[in-house]
């Protein structure tokens, strides 16, 4: 049965459309159960993130997929549909971060793993879906190991945190102060935690937002009015408020350096207008970066990731060939299993008749002769019928392959 991947993402659908097809928590499990109950659907999984919803299905045919998902989705113009090898290739690229909003971002791999776990928990992931995901995980690991696609900062926030890590070794021994708890502050906190920061301090004009962000990452909250007193505690200060004028004065930082006994500070001003007085950059032992400095670093990182992505594409092609080989072998295995099952069933039926005849006292030689004749007739009936049809339709290539098979069988 074919493998299908149906999806919409940040490139094909606006956010209001993506929101309608986002599944989290119980709704994800419910969607999987709904799908597996649809006619012609045999396996189902679903990757659902803020940037994409993608269904990986094993189905009888294309129509079964479109009917299961509904015309409102599949005919809306936002959806892409891939089958078999194309579906596997897309899944490989997604897991490797090659199809992400941020090229090479690592979070999507974890989201793919969660998608498989959810399908397994719902008992909707069979052998084809499971193997396809596991092969994608293997491919993503190769890309992370053999290329540098994930090691270069491509956002200003990530560039700020990565630069801080380069300046301070033993990152787990250092303290960072985030000034501002908006979207940028949340992104900074996540990056700092991922890189193993020792201690996080958060301040914001609205104290509740600072408390929520600090609690999420095991940090502490600083009251806005105590910002000046908090600066000496921080090795890293990153500010991203929407204030109309600087919130950090140069003389505060000068005093903080005295308290710190000239231990250096890394400061980042991501705000426009600026949050940190420009004169701060003139102080010794201060490394002050502005948003323009970090945009240059981010652009260099993006260029490096694009170069690494070319190598990653080569790895994807190699792994796609491996998946295709496995898929073909699996098809042959299914045919072999079916053939052997038919032979075993026919043998068992004729054997039971022969045993009963022997119990009835029939001549053993005659029983065995009849057993062999009837078994041979059952095993060869369907193949010989097909051979005659092929001969009548002049399917010479198929006949040659079958003749080769019987030649090999005969010699053994």
Going by CATH, the homologous superfamily of the largest domain would be Glutamyl-tRNA reductase, N-terminal domain
Total of helices: 15
CATH-level-2 architecture of the largest domain = 2-Layer Sandwich
CATH class group of the largest domain: Alpha Beta
* Secondary-structure element pattern, one letter each: EHHEEHHEHHHHEHEHEHEHEEHHH
The total number of structural domains is 3
- Mean pLDDT value: 89
Please report the total strand number as a whole number: 10
Shape: elongated
Radius of gyration, taken over Cα atoms and rounded to an integer in Å: 32 Å
- Strands of the widest sheet, in order across it, are 7-6-5-8-9-10
**Structural class estimated from helices and strands:** alpha/beta
The major beta sheet can be summarized as: 6 strands, parallel
Helix content: 55-70%
């Amino acid at each position: 049965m074919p493998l299908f991947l149906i999806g919409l993402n940040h490139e094909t659908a606006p956010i209001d459309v993506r929101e309608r097809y986002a599944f989290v928590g119980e709704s994800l499990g419910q969607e999987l159960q709904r799908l597996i109950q649809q006619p012609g659907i045999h396996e189902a999984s679903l990757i659902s993130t803020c940037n994409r919803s993608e269904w990986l299905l094993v189905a009888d045919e294309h129509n079964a997929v479109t009917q299961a998902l509904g015309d409102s989705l599949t005919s809306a113009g936002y959806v892409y549909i891939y089958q078999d090898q194309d579906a596997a290739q897309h899944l490989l690229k997604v897991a490797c971060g090659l199809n992400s909003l941020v090229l090479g971002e690592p979070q999507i791999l974890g989201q793919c793993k969660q998608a498989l776990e959810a399908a397994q928990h719902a008992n909707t992931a069979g052998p084809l879906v499971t193997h396809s995901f596991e092969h994608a995980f293997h491919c993503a690991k190769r890309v992370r190991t053999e290329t540098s696609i994930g090691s270069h900062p491509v956002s200003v926030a990530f560039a700020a945190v990565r630069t801080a890590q380069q300046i301070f070794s033993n990152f787990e021994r250092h303290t960072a102060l985030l000034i501002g708890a908006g979207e940028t502050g949340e992104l900074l906190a996540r990056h700092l935690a991922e890189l193993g920061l020792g201690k996080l301090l958060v301040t914001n004009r609205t104290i509740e937002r600072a408390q929520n962000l600090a609690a999420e990452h095991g940090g502490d909250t600083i009251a806005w009015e105590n910002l000046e007193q908090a600066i000496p505690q921080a090795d890293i200060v990153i500010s991203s408020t929407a204030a109309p004028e600087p919130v950090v004065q140069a003389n505060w930082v000068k005093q903080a350096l005295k308290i710190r006994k000239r231990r250096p500070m890394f400061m980042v001003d991501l705000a426009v207008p600026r949050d940190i007085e420009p004169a701060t950059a003139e102080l010794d032992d201060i490394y002050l970066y502005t948003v323009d400095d970090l945009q240059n670093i981010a652009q260099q990182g993006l260029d490096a990731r694009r170069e690494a992505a070319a190598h990653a594409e080569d790895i994807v092609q190699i792994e796609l060939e491996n998946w295709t080989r496995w898929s073909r072998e699996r098809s042959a295995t299914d045919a072999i299993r079916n053939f052997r099952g038919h032979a075993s069933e026919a043998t068992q039926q004729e054997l039971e008749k022969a045993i009963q005849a022997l119990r009835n006292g029939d001549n053993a030689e005659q029983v065995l002769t009849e057993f062999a004749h009837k078994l041979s007739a059952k095993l060869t009936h369907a193949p010989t019928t097909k051979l005659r049809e092929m001969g009548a339709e002049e399917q010479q290539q198929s006949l040659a392959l079958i003749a080769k098979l019987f030649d090999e069988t005969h010699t053994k």
